[in-house]
Design brief:
alpha+beta, seven-stranded mixed sheet, 8 helices, about 30% helix
Length: about 350
């Protein structure tokens, strides 16, 4: 036996002569179904191969001296913009609100439509200048004995208690805004030190006597709010910030909301090797109702702390050999299954249509 014959003997797929092959309608039907299944599974495997997946890794956070970006987008439907202030304090007690602050306030009418805009950094700078001259928002600091007097809002008493014309106009403006049902949307970004701290949105920027004249007491300050977006860095695919979409509405009551946030430093590494530094967080919530004897004013606090662990999320893609292996298994299995189905259908149809031997002899 020659060399060619030896090679032919190794053929695992021998061919039959063309005239010995028999084509049937059932075989054509099975072939069409098999091709549809093979094409569907092929595109499924191709999509699976091209889709990236993520792998999480943890390590000690070694970052030092960086700032923490805080993105805010909130609506206060029951408080005018003139009385709202944003403040941020870190663990050392250092105020960061007048450093790298980019906060905007949008005035909203009772239907939630925008009717005006203010840039908060300018207000903060004015407030600090006022503190230097012993005045806060147009209110002269009074002696301790005089500070306990009750104010009824009349122009005469305002002058007598040390309120200047600017403060009087502001009080009247805010009272009218409250009657009109004005709200405020606060959005922008704070850059704070990368240490534990808090930021809060409240009426604390007002002098306490101005606030008393406007609201008539802390129990009348409604800090109902909607959190449209709160994040500590840019978003990456699959990130879900737990406070987004939070709505807290108060009816005939007041109090302080506190959100305790645990920030986890995160790095997202794209398949292109680009690195996106950001943060994800978990949160728990606490509400403290206000009563008439409390000496504090309602506010919305966000108290945050940083985890010492950094999470690295890496995008990866499955290997080409893995794709070929799965493709061969799927396509080969489908081909073998359709071949078995074809043989079974052929024998079934042949048994149903072939005449019986007893009927042939009659």
């Amino acid at each position: 036996m020659g060399f060619k014959q030896t090679i032919k003997s190794l053929d695992a797929f021998p061919r039959a002569e063309e005239h010995l092959l028999r084509k049937t309608q059932s075989g054509a039907l099975v072939s069409i179904v098999g091709l549809v299944i093979i094409a569907t599974l092929f595109f499924h495997e191709l999509t699976y191969y091209l889709t990236t997946y993520t792998v999480n890794q943890m390590s000690i956070d070694l970052k030092r001296g960086e700032t923490l970006p805080i993105h805010i987008n909130m609506t206060f439907p029951s408080l005018p913009c003139d009385v709202l202030s944003v403040d941020a304090i870190d663990m050392s007690g250092k105020h960061e609100v007048d450093l790298d602050t980019n906060i905007w306030k949008l005035r909203l009418n009772s239907h939630g439509h925008i009717i005006g805009t203010e840039y908060l950094s300018d207000l903060v700078e004015k407030e600090h200048e006022a503190h230097k001259h012993g005045i806060v928002l147009g209110v002269v600091h009074l002696p301790h004995d005089d500070e306990k007097e009750h104010h009824d809002g009349s122009d005469k008493k305002l002058h007598a208690l040390g309120f200047d014309q600017e403060a009087e106009n502001m009080i009247k403006k805010v009272k009218q805004a409250l009657v009109d049902g004005e709200g405020c949307r606060v959005y922008g970004e704070l850059d704070v030190q990368r240490v534990a701290g808090n930021f809060h949105i409240s009426v604390h920027g007002l002098n306490i006597y101005v606030a008393q004249m406007i609201f008539g007491g802390a129990t009348h300050v409604n800090v109902s709010h909607m959190i449209h977006d709160l994040s500590f860095g840019p978003k990456y695919p699959g990130l879900h910030n737990p406070l987004d979409g939070t709505v807290r509405i108060l009816h005939e009551t007041s109090g302080t909301f506190k959100y305790y946030i645990k920030i986890v430093p995160t790095e997202y590494r794209y398949i292109s090797k680009e690195v996106l530094p950001t943060n994800q967080f978990s949160v728990s919530e606490y509400f403290s109702p206000m009563n008439e004897f409390d000496r504090t004013w309602p506010a919305v606090y966000f108290l945050y702390d940083l985890s010492p662990i950094t999470v690295t999320i890496k995008e990866e893609r499955r290997s080409f050999l893995h794709f070929i292996t799965r493709l061969c298994a799927v396509l080969g299995g489908t081909f073998a299954l359709t071949g078995m189905l074809d043989r079974w259908m052929f024998r079934l149809l042949e048994g149903l249509t072939k005449p019986s031997p007893r009927g042939a002899y009659r």
